[in-house]
Amino acid sequence: MKLKQGYEKTDLPLVDYIRNWIEEYKKDSVRKNTIKIHENNLKNHIKPYFKKLIFKPLSEKGS
């Protein structure tokens, strides 16, 4: 998944998408404790309820 280069892998589980977002966009811009909080929230609050939800990016009609 290469978000910074302008393309995204589709049909990705939401949990994996958020994990990649943390890695790509947050790791180098926030404190380590903030990363731990994000990862903890993902593990304890998002994953239990949305682990089977597939993320499909929105696109313009006709794309």
List the helices and strands and how they pair.
Elements: E1 12-13, H1 14-26, H2 32-50, E2 54-55
Antiparallel strand pairs: 1-2
Helix pairs in contact: 1-2
InterPro entries: Integrase_recombinase_N (IPR010998), Integrase_SAM-like_N (IPR004107)
Keywords: DNA-binding
Organism: Paenibacillus yanchengensis
Question: Can you characterise this structure?
Answer:
There is one protein chain. This protein has 63 residues and is mainly alpha-helical. It has a domain at 10-53. The chain contains two helices and two strands. It has helices at residues 14-26, 32-50, and strands at residues 12-13, 54-55. It has a two-stranded antiparallel sheet. It is flat. The two termini are 20 Å apart.
Properties at a glance:
two-stranded antiparallel ribbon; DNA-binding; Integrase SAM-like N-terminal domain-containing protein; Integrase_recombinase_N; Integrase_SAM-like_N
What's the quick description here?
This protein is mainly α and 63 residues long. It is built from two helices and two strands. It has a two-stranded antiparallel sheet.
